[in-house]
């Protein structure tokens, strides 16, 4: 009894699943039909335009003018390919990723480099082959099959309506021939009745299979476009190389700016204090030799004040250098120490798991960025409270892939990037790790600054 009940329940579920999927295919069929018909028109236009331009350009290469014609042909081929990829969105199939059109190194421009860029990029040539050869061939085949399926499917279902208006012969219609040939099936039927039944049966079969046939044709176009018009693995590698180069340049620039700023701050602060301290000690020595105890005591007090001020300034400058706490106990403890040493209220939300996945380079940069942001809050924001949040962002596989650090204050707002100023330098530091610094600081506050740094594997 239990087995019978299970079978009785399972069978309808399977049927419902089939019809649900079949219904979804039918929803996508109109868009696929429009694409398969429209892409044929696009292919005929592209082969006409591209073939004429390309062979004209090749024939004129000897007199130089052919070179810009060939380059223009490649650019037009890219346009036809982009149109095909755009039309493929009608099929409800996945979007095809954009190729890498410019692989030249930054700063290597110039007239000839720009002019010949399409000639040196394989994507342009593949787009030309697709638009001039491949797409016309496959579009012609798919157009013929699509036209047959639409005409037989829709025409067969409605033949009983419009077929009566077609001029007919003198009794030699093919319906009579079929009735005579299959008397056991159509015995006694007239030719018109046989035609209606056969057209109706063909219409049912073709209409029922239409979602699968048109879907297969659209999938074929999509597969070819993905291979020829889509992004290649080499594109990702080229983009990664450029990103690494940009990050390295940003890191070098940030370090250079930080060193120059540290040099300026030391010169304007502790160095001047120490020079003054040296002068005070020399004056103190002279007063002591002269026996003027009161003046010597006054100079000693001033010297002590200058020494204390120099020490305080050196401590402030050292906030830009990673403390031993960061190396001994990790990033979470170092960030908590920065928050504890801030003279305003700080709410911290620090995930202790960040220590296990952050490399030393990431930890040092994040510590410096947070310390600098707290300094900016104290100096410029007028805030009375700050929130520090550090958390891990998992990837699709569940492995942490990004460190997100936010510093949010309730100050007056208005913070923005400015060339040569603090936030610009912090953005360069974060960019050196291929990260991103986000600033949201409307007038009146609050100010939110987020550093988002990708995690590098720790060996």
Which secondary structure elements does this structure contain, and how are they paired or packed?
Elements: H1 2-59, H2 66-87, H3 111-115, H4 117-120, H5 122-162, H6 174-181, H7 183-186, H8 191-229, H9 233-268, H10 270-290, H11 293-317, H12 324-329, H13 331-340, E1 345-350, H14 354-357, H15 360-381, E2 385-394, E3 400-409, H16 422-431, E4 436-440, E5 447-454
Parallel strand pairs: 1-2
Antiparallel strand pairs: 2-3, 3-5, 4-5
Helix pairs in contact: 1-2, 1-5, 1-8, 2-5, 5-8, 6-8, 9-16, 10-11, 13-15, 15-16
In brief, what are we looking at here?
Mean pLDDT is 77; it is low at 1-15.
Relevant terms:
Heat Shock Protein 90, alpha+beta, 5-stranded mixed β-sheet
Q: Can you summarize the main beta sheet?
A: 5 strands, mixed
Molecular shape? elongated
Helix content: 55-70%
Number of H/I helices: 16
Strand composition percent = 5-15%
Q: How many discrete structural domains?
A: 3
- The H/E string reads HHHHHHHHHHHHHEHHEEHEE
- Mean pLDDT, as a whole number? 77
The secondary-structure class comes to: alpha+beta
Give start-end ranges of low-pLDDT stretches.
Answer: 1-15
Radius of gyration: 38 Å
Strand order of the largest sheet: 1-2-3-5-4
Distance between the termini: 60 Å
Number of strands: 5
